[in-house]
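Researcher: I've been going back and forth with a colleague about how Proteolipid protein 2 might be arranged in three dimensions. Neither of us has a model we trust, so I'd like an independent prediction. The organism is Heterocephalus glaber, in case that matters for your notes. Sequence below.
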Amino acid sequence: MADSERLSAPGCWAACTSYWRTRKGFLLLTEIILCLVILICFSASTSGYSSLSVIEMILAAVFFVIYMCDLHTKMPFINWPWSDFFRTLIAAILYLITSIFVLVEKGNTAKIIAGVLGLIATLLFGYDAYFTFPLRQQRHTAAPTDPTDGPV
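Model: Here is an independent structure prediction for Proteolipid protein 2. You can compare it with whatever you and your colleague have in mind.
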């Protein structure tokens, strides 16, 4: 996944800084920051919608640490690309639904900002879901049409 883009790094801080420079690391870091800003906006206006931001921020941070420390290669019993794909797909759908509800209700300024940022989060999580789609990453090679071992 993002292993081919990462530089070799011996320490924890070096591994973190080299991982967030990859496309997947930058996406996860942006998701964490955007969820934090949305959480602050929802907390300032109403606490009813803040649980989505908390859960997605924690999940993005967990996946960031897992990919940064190469734990996905040490735990092969979990299919990490599919788990990450479903996390981002569900987050995009839930942020879209939540943002539409928040923008239709017409609350104060913080609530409207949270709704608009939720739509931006929908686009970000949707792009991440498209980028991490596991079947998109598989490379297919053409099968040989002629037998290579001679005539039968």
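Researcher: What would you highlight for our discussion?
Model: I'd start with this: Confidence is low (pLDDT under 50) at residues 3-9. After that, consider the following. The longest helix spans residues 80-105.
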